[in-house]
Each structure stands twice: as C-alpha cells, then as structure tokens.
Amino acid sequence: MIESSPPFRDPELSFDRRIDDLLSRLTLDERIALLHQFTPGVARLGIGPFRTGQEALHGVAWMGPATVFPQAVGLGATWNDDLVRRIGEAVGTEARAMRSRDERVGLNVWAPTVNLLRHPLWGRGEEGYSEDPGLTSALAVAYTRGLRGDHPVYWRTAPVLKHWLAHNNETRRDTTSSSVRPRVLHEYDLRAFRTAVEAGAVAGVMPAYNLVNGRPNHVSPYLREHLRRWTGQELLVCSDAGAPTNLVVSEKYFDTHEQATAAALRAGVDSFTDHGTDPSVTTGRLHGALEQGLLSETDIDMAARRQLSVRFRLGEFDPHLDPYAATTSRDFDTSGHRDLAREAAEQVIVLLKNDGMLPLAEGTRIAVVGLLADVCKTDWYSGTLIRRSTVLDGLRERFGAGNVTFAEGADQVRLKCAGGWLQVPAPQTGAGAGAGRDAEGALDPALLEGRTDLPPLTVGSEATAFALIDWGEGAWTLRAPDGRYLSVAADGFLRASADDPGGWVVQETFTRERHGEGCLLKHRGTGQYVSVAADGVRVAARGEVFEIEYLERGAEAVTRAAADAEVVLVVAGNDPHINGRETEDRTTLALPPQQERLWRAAHAANPRTALALVSAYPYAVGDADAALPALLWTAHGGQAAGTALARVLAGDVSPAGRLPQTWYAADADLPDLLDYDIIGSRQTYLYFEGTPLFPFGHGLGYSSFMYRGLEAGWDGDVLTISFTVTNTGSLDADEVAQLYIRAVGGPVVRPSRQLAGHRRLHLAAGAARHLEFRVPLAELGIFDVAHDRWTVPPGTYELLAGASSADIRITSSIEVDGDPIGPRPVREQGLAAVAYDEQVGTEIVDHTKASGDAVTPAHSKGELLFRDCDFNTGVTAVIVEATGGGAVSVTTGTTTTILEPVDPTGGTYDYTPRTAAFTASGVRDLRVGLRGPVRLARLDFQRSPTDDVH
C-alpha cells in the first residue's frame, strides 16, 4: 500500500529533507540499485524507473528524428554565447517533447563536451568547442543554461559535462595516461570545467576513459579536490560506458572488480554506466565490496543522494509544479527551431580567404563539385535528420536550378576477379531503414550489424559500375548505382544495403592492398577480405584478387563541369563516420589525395574556383590557399547546412564565423598526439612559436571594421576594458571583437596572448558600438608551482583588441601590483617532484592509487629543472623519496650528488627515503636527473646541525 503523502512528496519541504526521507524508506538493495545507469522503479513507493544519460551534443541524439544543429566545433566557430544558449533551450525543449511520447528519452543529458581542442588530429575534435579554455567555458555556460532552463527550482534537463579530464586521444584511449603538470592542469584543463560548474547550470560530469598522471579518471582525486569544491550544489558523476570494468580488464589498475567499484565510488563516481541495461553486474560488485569491507553504507547513501538530487530538480516528484512538464510534441521541430538551425549554420561559416571573388552576383553560373557537394553528413552524436539541405540543394534554390551544374568527382569503377565481374543483383527496391536505425530512425544496437534482407553481391558476366571514394588514410567506400553503399552484415555477406556509412563499427569501408597485378579488398570493420563463395560475395580470412577498371576518373567529370561555368565551388572535407571519430584519431592534416586532385582539376579548368571545406577538423591546405581566390570552412552544419552556405556565397549574409582552433600549416608543426604539456611543447595559439596557416580567431567578412579608444580601469579586483567598434563598410554585418591579454616578461613562460573576452555583434553599415569587458584580476594569473597556489605576478600586461589573435587593431598596457613569485623555500618545505619548472624526457605518474603524483623517465632517462631554490644559509644532505629502482642525481652549479640504486625490491608504491651528502646555500637552480625505472615523489634537505645555534 502506497503511503498517501510521505514527506518526500511534500513540495513545502526542502529537497535535502525530502531526500533524507526518501533514503530512509529505501532498502539497502534499492539504494544500491540507484547507482546503475538504468535504475528500476520502486512500486511500493510509487517511484518510476530512471536512467542517466541522453546524448544531446547538438540536438537530441539516438532517439529518432530531431532538429539537428551544427556540430559542436561549429558552434565554437560562432563565438556567440547567446546563440548557443538559445540552441541549448531548443535541444532541452525537444528532449522534453520527445519524452512526452517516448519514455526512453532521458532528461539527464550528457552534454556538452568541454574537452579542449588541444590537438587537431584528435578523433573526437568535432565534439569540442575550442582549443581555448575561456571560449570553451563561455560556450559551455551558455549551452548548459539553455538546457537547464531559467526556473529557480526546477530544471528543463540536467546537463553533464564530458569528459573529465585531459582527454584528447582515441588511440589506446582506455590505457594511455595524459601527463599533466600542475600549471597545465590549473591554467588549462580544469578551467574549461570550472567556469561552467560555478555558473550553476551543470548537474554533473562524466570522467573520461583515459588515465591522468598514471591514474584512471574514474578514480581521480580531482573529483573531490577540485570539482566538488567549486559549488555547493550536489553534482552527479556518471561513468563513461564500460569504464568501471576497464579498471580491471584493460587498465589492470585493480585486481578485482569489487576493489575497482569501491575505489570509483569513494573517489566520487555515483552512476555506473556498465553492461548496458543490465544492472545486476554492477549491483553485484557493490554488494561484494560492502561484504568485503571496501565500502560502507554511508558511501552508498552519498551516491544515492546525488542521484535523487537530480531527479528532484527535474520535477519528477512534483509534476504539478514542474514548469516544463507541459512540454508536448507541439514543441518539437517547430518553425522557431528550424529557423534557429539555419541561423546557427550561417554563423558557423568561416571565410578563410577572399580575393574579391565573393559574394557571387545574381545569375552567376556555378559548377558545384566535390564529394561533399550533395550530401548532408551527420556524426555519431547526431539525431536523425527530419529535413536536409545539401550545398547543391542550397545553391539551386538560391541561384536557380538552371544556373547550377553538379559533378560529384567520385571515380567510376568496375571490379573483376577470376570468376567474373562484381555485380549487385537486380532489382534493388526501396532503401528501407538506414543501417543501425529502427523504422522510426532511432539508433538500434540490434541493427548495427547491418541488413540481411537484401541479396548478397555476386560475380558474373555483367559488371556493376561503382562509385569509388577514397576518403584518405586507407579508407574506401563503394556505392552502387542506386545510391546505397556496399556493407558487410553480421552474416559476413557483402550487400549494397547502407544509406550512408555509419554505426559504432563502420561496415562500409574497405582498404586496398596491392597483390601482384591486382589487389585485395580488406574490410575495415571485420579485418577480413572480400572473397567469392558459392552463395555470394562475403568476407573471409583469405581474399579474392581483384582488378580495378576505371571507367572514368572523378577529376575528368570535374574538369568538364568547371570549364562550362563562370565560377566553381569545390566542396571537400570528411565523413564524420570514417576519418576522425570516436575510437579513431586522424593521422594527418592533409586533405585526402582524391579531394586534392579534384580542386586542382577544377582550378586548372577555371581559375575562378573556390574551395569550401565541410569538415569536423582543420586541414593543412597551404597549396589551395596559395592558388585559389577564395576558401571557406564550415563544420557539418546540420539540417540547414546547404541553405546557409548558399546565402553566404550570395551575400545575403556576411560571414562572421571565427576559427575556434589553430589551423597549422603542416603535420611537422604538431607535437605528439599524447603530449599534453602545452607549455613545454608550445602547443595551441597560447604557446605556438611557428607560423600557422590560419590563426586562432581568424575569419573574414564582406564588410570592414575599425577599432578605437581602448581604455582600461579598475573596479576593485576587476579590470574594466572598453573600446569602440565601427562598421566602416557598406554592408550590415556581424563582427567578432576579441580581447587578449599578454604578460610582458615575467619569471615563467607565459602565453604569447590569451583570450580574455569576446563579443559577437551585428552592426549596420556606418554604425558603431561601445563594448565593455570586465576581467577579474585572477584571470591574469598563473599557478605558482613554487608555492602551490594561484597568483597574479606583478608587472606590465598588454591589452590587445582586434579581429583575431593575429589581427590586433589597438593595444594598451597596464601595470599590475601583484604578488611576486619568490624563491622556493626548499630547505624548510622540500620539493614535490611534480612541481618542476621545466622537464625533458619525463612523465608524471601516480604517487599512490588514491592521490598524489610522482615523476619517472618517459623512456630511460629524464631531467627536471627547479628554478630559484632557496637553500638559505645551507644544507648538508638531500633526502630522496623514490621507488622502482634506477638512480636520481641532484645538481646545483657544479656539484652533483647521485643516489643509486634506489631500492628496486619494493612495490610500485613502496617509496623508500634515501639520504646522501649534498651541500648548497643561497638561491640556486636545481637539476634532478632520473635514470632507469625510478619514480620520484619528492626531495627534502637536511640543515647543518649547527645551523639553528645562536
């Protein structure tokens, strides 16, 4: 019998008191059950089931048709906080509307991704906003505020930030460790999360798969040391899918799942996303951890409380008071959402170069060519498109179908083997549901292995002509004449069955391997080869040798189309399911060779050729920049991408997108993908010392703007900076005003300039606007490793305002009376090994499994530099806390002390102090050499016995 009005149902009580009451009514089993992603209901209390996790990165994903907005990296290119907030409102509203008719749609949304775009080859770069922590956090605040809603008590949806922390590689992502020194941690990686959390619209975070400083993120002490100190609000930490199991299986960080689960829960993980919809494995591990004394019921209750806190804020227990409960299907796919999708797609577009070719005049005869010209690509975190506009669609609508011709540029081929020609059985009727989608378009794991309702390919006397596209990095697709891609289903047969490449494991890509005069076709999804069997073409361990006959090269069709047009638009880029995506990093910045050939062929036939890159990532297109009169970039722009690009090309909209990350000139400019030390390896616009192809913040338009009157003053601990922007052109247009700050000199390496504020504004021709930015003094600071604190060093700081990080129009400077960074008090306080100023050849590892850092050589040897160490009147010995074998050398001036061997017999975390004679006095630099498998935690120094005698 359900109690009529228990206290947890009383809206007059605080959420804390209601949660206390509800917890007291739940059995231990019921409280444990709350900690899995899929929580069952409690019928006796009238409580329904709940699940954490609904993907909503740029629209509601995986649940069928929804409004699809531009990719997150594209939203980063808008530099428009207000626009991103309005998109968050639309996405949150559609989540509510979809849930009103489908209870599978969740309101705990896993978005946005705030990992910084440190490295352009990261496979998931499409999911982030920017390489800059300030821009990223500003957009994350905007998006989460939109998702959350503005009611003071109840939330529209409950956003969870992804992925905590320092996650920028897919290669071995569950076993690699990001070595993050304290300055990078505090000045870079944490900043993107902190501002959004402090703004109060974030319900929680999701830890990343990787390790940081040798410790898996799912047992990170930073969750309690930083995240939960930033706000008084309960934050829900949701594990990434399968990550709790990884702690034992792939990472081997714990011996048993009970140990791993207990450690994750104690570290702060509240919801375990593991084993799909089956909670029994997770709950069994939690019960086991309790029985073994690894957990207490208090630990369980703390996590359960955070789960319930989210549910109360979402209005689950007060549906009559929830202002968002009345959202229905009328609020889905509205005209307002469609207009917003188009506005966003327009604001994403970045004009990289324009030698007067754009905008195009009315009636211009255009040849639109390229592999991305007549497609509207989605990515893994897109919803199903309700409507779509390709570039070809948009141009024909805007310029007239008779003025626009098209050539895709795919190579047309036939494939022959010993038994005959590869052919698609006829007839092919009805495209049916796309691979991986159910009949309503929702993502269906049961369909991810592909369709089996169509006949397999065969070999015979009649050849089918296939469109062959080389996407680069060894990935091919083959498309049948009816538009469907060759795909391999669970039964291993090859069929023309997929509307597009896609799925968690892409089944539509192949790699050519040369074999004598012919080649083998290796299926990338299974790792097997295309083979001919009696019952059809399938994949097997041994493949058939094929001869590829080219009926026409794509460049030939492009040449014909280009020669007959007044201007040519080459549309190139990536398929987000093929090159660079979750689980797969890119290997190069280069445009795929087939697409390189297409723009060169178009330009050779018609000098008035523009290149539009539609991609999730930057490319190194220096030759195109040198040769072509116009270049543009847009991320995959969602459902209105084609219409938006056409309006920009026609001049209906002046482009004002700005690059949210540096576009480098060549692969040689990039550090190693796994090098997370942006200071030491001079990464991102903050520290890069080379010349980029296009700098951070770059973007052109069809008007011109003047900056003047830069002034600065103090309001307490806030720096107030203002200037005026005037549209000096003849067109109404947007401008993105950017404010940077640079420390002049100083005791440590500082960014060459750092974004301190931005504002996207629309100005009529001739109009001006006075802008004011308020920058907290703390934003000028750094993390002082010498004293383990955040500080603002005194000195001169330059203020720089302009149109990009490299296009500074006005400057000024201020003097800051900050807190000097004094010498390190090493005689009194010793040295933490991780608190170095510079390093060569080392990486940071875990001091213990629970907390702390140590330093070890990345290979066989490394060195740490500690500047300005104050030994006072002198020391006589050094005490080294280390483990693992190997040796430690300590050098100041010409004096070196070597401690070897460090005891190699202890365990990984058995640090053994060793003492050796060492003399130094005064303030000196200290160098510490590491050799062999040593793990160094800290150094302490011993005073002379007579030092304190007076």
From TrEMBL:
In terms of CDD domains, this protein maps to: beta-trefoil_FSCN_BglX-like (cd23343)
**Which SUPFAM superfamilies does the record match to this protein?**
(Trans)glycosidases, Actin-crosslinking proteins, Beta-D-glucan exohydrolase, C-terminal domain
Coiled-coil region: none
State the UniProt keywords alphabetically: Hydrolase, Signal
The organism's place on the tree of life at top rank = Bacteria
Chain ranges of the Fibronectin type III-like domain: 735-805
| UniProt family annotation | Belongs to the glycosyl hydrolase 3 family.
Protein name (database record): Glycoside hydrolase family 3 C-terminal domain-containing protein
